[in-house]
Amino acid sequence: MPYGGADPYTQWVVEQERMRRRRRTRRAVAAGTGVVLVAAITTGAVLYTDGGRGGAAAAAPSSPAASAAPVPSVTVSMPSDAPSALPSLLARPVIRPEQAFPAKSVRPADGSRYERVDLATTSDCSEGTAPELAALIAQGQGCERLTAALFTDAERRSQVTVTVLSFRTVQDASSVFAMASMDPVTYQVVSLDPPPEAGMPTVPPGSAGVFRRLMTVRSVVFANGQWGDGSEADEAAITKQTEDLLRYVDDDVLAYEDPDSA
Q1: Residue 24 to residue 233: CA distance in whole angstroms
Q2: pLDDT tens for residues 154-163?
Q3: What is the pTM (predicted TM-score) of this model?
């Protein structure tokens, strides 16, 4: 994954800054079937076309100037071996913010300690996503809720935003996961700025970072990690923090969406 000044990452940074400015003016209101199903979905048929030009097209990183380019039309088929319990799982209410992020103090299995310093949620998922991702979501039956939390480490040096996008259908969640995996620069979510009361700096424009994602039953969990001072050093450390928090939240989301997976 790019870190530092690589061109795709530069595009990601520019897009993050643009979306952060939009978020400041449209602030959100604060507030699965286990590995077998996820593997079946992500290896199932994912078809996309290049906006009517014919043939298959691979997703490519885009620049902000190209944000108006057509978003591929994505069709995801339900795997033939999807479990019979899936309809009942999807009938459960979508995960709430306090269920996705129940604790302000987080301790993953390795003993690391993180603090949740902000929490935001909205039913208008376009408020927290890039335009291309919002357009992709609009192709399906829609995103029911976006909930994001900002975490920092014990030294209050890192800033890791973990975002849960929950969908009405497995197919929509799977299409978002597939496209974000192929092109994380274009199909991205907004990183939260720390609130004033947190006493933390806003990450400087152009700073390095990492971004990861996982899928549960009906949700895609994203994690964006950066050092608060914009440092490009300690790539392994910020990557570990980002992945630790991603897995921690993903476990909570999966345990809610599929209680039998716990």
Answers
A1: 28
A2: 999 999 999 9
A3: 0.73
